[in-house]
Structures are given as structure tokens and as C-alpha cells.
């Protein structure tokens, strides 16, 4: 494959990623336009809605407003004045990351992979810029800079990950070995410091990952238990079959957000569905909320056994600490000293707090006017609770394993 074919192939890969991201919402909306609305509305409305959702999913902010009739029909006073939307349906960003990783693997197998990667990134940036321009409207105006930069950044990260993994696989080496070599080059530190920092990074990522996995299971359980309430909200929407499909796809895009919110609930701070509301293990206090079906899975009232949820991150971090002790011992070549264990626990707390705080920040934001300007968990509270609970429990697990040794 020569350079020209590589460039064309890479540009098509970028176009495919953008097309899939936009098409997931545009296809059902177009079917609604043709079947449910009988082609009576302007199709450009559905195009702009799909592009807006895609841009929001990558973190691009948007200034929006509703006309007085629509604001009154939705019961959103003050929505006729411009407000900012920052709540990102992270499913779109995650899809771009995964598709970018796939594109990176395919481009890395070409003889001119560096050229291909550059062409893919530039093509994606140009497409994102054009899409932002097509979505501009006085009532919904996405940020041109954020819409172009943030979407391209997510794609570039996925592209780089996929290409890197593919190149190491073609070279016959494992990515883990490459990461270890890179870590040794970047950290020309004493053995003890490198062992502490490396083990802390592993402990923080493992603890947060385990918490997210359990949170996803909790979310699935809540949806299954409250299935009747969710169906009732679907029936109350009177959206029809195609409208129900579009509504379901929109909610699926927010599943990563909901999983992070569940993780914040397990840590203790919980999250908010509007200013002045709280959903936490101690109980749920909600004001008027949108009639979105998935919100029917929210726990209500005081939870007699809600405090048991606080044990989940503690138990998970303790188990990670037990496993981390053997890694620390292997890195040092001897039984770690008490000070080394405590330093590793403190660094793990810092890493876990920063990571969970960042996830909480990504998952929340402004979802509308008035009360809806505050949605999701508090990044500061979530980060502090994660640092405290995971740090102490992980340290306790390492100390227990050290005492047993």
C-alpha cells in the first residue's frame, strides 16, 4: 500500500468513526421524522439534535434556550433565557474512543502508519469543525473551539492507544513489557521510591476500577428491581415505538454517567438531580425532576440498610491492598518496611481521590435551566471520600498481608 492509499484509507477510517457516532442517534430520529411526523417537520432539526448530542458527549459545552411555548409545556420556567449545557452523555465519547482504538490498530498495520495516523487526526478535526458549523442555531449554539478540539482529542487518544498496541503486537512484544520499560526510563528514581509510586498507581487504578465494576452491577440491579416504575414512565411519555427507541438510545448514552454516580453513592457523597436534592446511602431527597424513565430506578426515602453500601469500597480496597503487598515485596526484593507500606497507602489514597474526583467531574454538569444546572456528584466530596476510604482500607490490607508474612 503506497502513501496515497494509506492516506485515503486513514481518512475513511476517521469518516467511519464520525458517521457511526452521528448515525446512532440520527437514524432513529430520521425514522421518526418520516413515519411518526409524516415529513411535516424540517429534517435539519433532527440533524442538529444528533450533532449536538454527539458534541456534548465529548465534553463540548453548549449555550441553549427554549421558546416560551416549549418552556411552558415542559414546565421549565426561565428556559426562554439562554442557559449553558455541560452534562456530557459519556457514551458517545466512549464510543469514539473505542472506534478510534480500532482505527489505530488497522492503520498501524499499513507500511506508512505515521502518515496514516496524521491524516486520520486531521480528517477527524476537519469533520468535527464542519459538523459544529452545521449545528449552530440561535436556540442551541455549541462551542466551536470545544466541539472541534475535544472530539478530536478523544479520537486521537483512542487512535494512539490502538496504534501503540498494534505495533507492539507486530513486534512480538507485550504492551505490559513496553509500559515497564517506559516507566523505568521516565522514573530514574531509587528502587524504593519507584516501588512505592508504581504500586500506588496500580492500587489506585485497581481500587477505582473494582468500584466502577460493582457500581455497574448495582445500577443493573436497580433497573431490574424498579422495572415497573421505569415502564410506567415510558408509558407516560406517549412517545410511540420509534420515540421510545430514540429515548432508550439517549439514556444508553448516559449509562457511563450513571455508573459513576452509583460509584459516588457507594462512596457516601452520592449525587444530585437538581439543586437542593440529594441521593445518598443515608436517604433520597428529590424535588421536581424530569420524567426520564431511567430515573425511576432511583432509590426513594430513607434506606435502612443504605450504610452497607459504604462497606463496598472499603472491602474492595482492602482486597486490593492484600494483593498489592506481594507486588510491593517483589519490587523491593524484600519484606517492605512499615514506613514504605504507609507511604504506598498514602500515595494510593492520593491517586484514588484524584481519579474518582476526575470521573465525578466528567460525569456531572449542567443539564438545563434553574435547578437542572446542578446534576451529578460533587467532585471535591467524591475525591475526598475516595482518598479517605480507599487509602485507609488499602493500607490496612497491606499491613495485614505484611503481618501474615
TrEMBL record:
Transmembrane segments: 12-35, 83-100, 112-136, 148-166, 195-225, 245-267, 304-325, 337-361, 381-401
Key words, A-Z: Membrane, Transmembrane, Transmembrane helix
InterPro entries: DUF6350
UniProt-listed Pfam families: DUF6350
Membrane among keywords: yes
Keyword Disulfide bond found: no
Domain of life: Bacteria
Protein name as it appears in the record: Uncharacterized protein
